Amino acid sequence: MKMNDPDLSHLEQIQYRLEVNDFFYQKDEVVAPHSSLWGDFNFSLNGILEYKIEEKMYLSPPNYGLWLPPQTAHTSIALDEKETHYVCIRVHPSLCQHFAACTKILSIAPFLRNVVHEILGHQNKYSLEYQHLLQVLLDQLKIAPAYDNYLPQTNHVLLKPLLQHLSNPELFHQNLQQLLHPIPFSERHLLRLSQQELQLSLLEWRNRAKIIYAITQLRQGKTIKKLAYELGYQHSSSFIEFFKRYTDQTPAQFRDI
């Protein structure tokens, strides 16, 4: 039976319209430039991949995935010191109308991750249960919050060097006000500029930069206590709360994946 066979129900057809595969990448392993006639939703189960799409760079950390419309050329490289477990969900063109016509970052809820784990571990890909799981996965992708970039960049003459400053791990122990104090512009002006150029506040942008750093350091074996201190937290509990707010996991849970 074929995908568009009229004898197949909508639920039965979904197994021919969604494909879920996982891959394992070593540090600095590069996926050569390629594109597909299908849409792709790619996300990491543990480490971080960096994508180059249409001359723009995108980060794909855990809990945020990349939606790529059909025929979107892309290449990627694994950044994590440990093996990165990655998932690719291929979406048939007939279903791509439900998603953006350009590259987007999608937020991944814990429930969506759990559904993917169930799908990957399922033995019978032609069972009714498997078809139901695929339908739930599709519904979750449809409602996932979408963003232009997880950690957007800019060439703005003022913001570009400021972002480099804000993302310097050696300065993470300082708060945002301390870092902005020497700059001869008001915080209101900088906030307006960041919203215009990045669609994020400077505080949110820096928090995301901290999360990226924290993920890489946890995977390299740094202790939670030491990492909390580096990020400017006097108590590990405050860092744990911050990390969980962005990843839906505690640092210990993430490290043990």
TrEMBL record:
UniProt keyword list: DNA-binding, Transcription, Transcription regulation
Highest taxon above the source species: Bacteria
InterPro entries: AraC-bd, Homeodomain-like_sf, HTH-like, HTH_AraC, HTH_AraC-typ_CS
SMART domains for the chain: HTH_ARAC
Start and end residues of each HTH araC/xylS-type domain: 156-257
Name of the molecule in the record: AraC family transcriptional regulator
Organism expressing this protein natively: Acinetobacter albensis
